[in-house]
Design a protein that fits this description.
DUF7865; single chain; mainly alpha; about 120 residues
Length: about 120
């Protein structure tokens, strides 16, 4: 939301950033609205993770961690099947897939750690 164009230029390059910002005012409005909703979603997810951190029920935390791991794996699959077809983002998807798998692996490590505490 703040300095979105500059962040796009830094991450994708000048030419790709121009293509991703939209060619008509209607497209630009749709992209800005989409970015706003994505920011709102990130805030809500962060708040949800913060709230779950204070839950003492291990079964619920295990359920939540499994859901987060599944979410990251499904995001990686979505990137492999759909994002790689976009020529403007073709060189970004491998890094993002690796990041998604690393995040899913962090939740798996959390599950292993809680499993170890439960059965020790």
């Amino acid at each position: 939301m703040f300095y979105l164009n500059e962040i796009s230029v830094l991450g994708h390059g000048i030419e790709t950033a121009k293509k991703l910002s939209g060619s008509t005012p209607h497209d630009q409005l749709l992209i800005q609205t989409s970015n706003s909703f994505a920011g709102l979603l990130l805030f809500v997810v962060g708040f949800l993770v913060f709230m779950v951190a204070f839950v003492k029920d291990r079964d619920f935390q295990t359920f939540f961690a499994r859901g987060c791991a599944l979410l990251h794996v499904s995001m990686a699959l979505w990137r492999v099947y759909f994002e790689r077809r976009l020529e403007d983002l073709a060189w970004d998807w491998p890094k993002q897939v690796v990041g998604d798998f690393v995040l899913a692996l962090s939740w798996v490590f959390f599950l292993v750690y809680t499993w170890r505490e439960k059965y020790d």
